[in-house]
Amino acid sequence: MFVIDSTVIFLKKAIFDKMITIPEVIEEIKDSNSRLYLSIINLKVEEAKEEFIERVKEVAKRTGDIYRLSDTDIKLLAKALEHNAVIVTDDYSIQNVAKKLNLKFENVIQRGIEKEFKWIRVCIGCGRRTEKEICEVCGSPTKLRRVKK
């Protein structure tokens, strides 16, 4: 089974057997060519289950990818986890979390990730680590920084 991201539909690369996605991905498909393509492919659409969403969020918090993943990304990962499916995406944050969840992934057109990363938020003013977008200590904005594993 393959869980597919919207990129697969936009690029008309839905060549996998037993494909599944979530309603949020379908909602992202607005242009008429992609909607037509969507109507002719064999694609099952299911909601992501809350228990799997929570597991994905836990892992994404540990890797720091929680700051980079959209709700749709998290639900795609949850659907892949639920079915122990291969997730098809070019999104590096999705791939990073998939790797931590021991899920396989395939890229669409870009090379997939080769290393796992961890991300932290760091204040650009005082350099402190934080989980907020604005530092509680000095009031400066924060930015994401990749840390070595």
Helices and strands, with pairings:
Elements: E1 2-4, H1 6-10, E2 19-21, H2 23-28, H3 32-40, E3 43-45, H4 50-63, H5 71-83, E4 86-88, H6 92-100, E5 105-106, E6 118-123, E7 129-130, E8 142-147
Parallel strand pairs: 1-2, 1-4, 2-3, 4-5
Antiparallel strand pairs: 6-7, 6-8
Helix pairs in contact: 4-5
Function: Toxic component of a type II toxin-antitoxin (TA) system. Processes pre-16S-rRNA at its 3' end (the D-site) to yield the mature 3' end.
Pfam family, one: PIN_6
GO cellular component, one term: preribosome, small subunit precursor
Task: List the main descriptive attributes of the protein structure presented here.
149 residues; alpha/beta; Rossmann fold; Rubrerythrin, domain 2; 3-stranded antiparallel β-sheet; 8 strands; 38% helix; 19% strand; hydrolase; nuclease; PIN-like_dom_sf; Ribonuclease_PIN; NOB1
Question: What is the rounded Rg?
Answer: 17 Å
Strand order, main sheet: write it out.
Answer: 3-2-1-4-5
Shape, principal axes of CA atoms? elongated
CATH architecture of the largest domain: 3-Layer(aba) Sandwich
Strand content: 15-25%
CATH topology of the largest domain: Rossmann fold
Number of helices: 6
- In N-to-C order, the SSE pattern is EHEHHEHHEHEEEE
Oligomer: single chain
- Which homologous superfamily in CATH is the superfamily of the largest domain? 5'-nuclease
Polypeptide structure, described:
The strands form two sheets. A five-stranded parallel sheet has the order 3-2-1-4-5. A three-stranded antiparallel sheet has the order 7-6-8, with no helix packed on it. A hairpin with a 5-residue loop joins strand 6 and strand 7. The chain has 149 residues and is an alpha/beta fold. The protein has two domains: 2-106, 5'-nuclease (Rossmann fold), CATH 3.40.50; 118-147, Rubrerythrin, domain 2. The chain has six helices and eight strands, in the order E-H-E-H-H-E-H-H-E-H-E-E-E-E. Helix 4 crosses helix 5 (71-83). One of its GO terms (biological process) is maturation of SSU-rRNA. Residues 3-82 form the Ribonuclease PIN domain. Pfam families: PIN_6. InterPro entries: NOB1, PIN-like_dom_sf, Ribonuclease_PIN. This is Endoribonuclease Nob1.
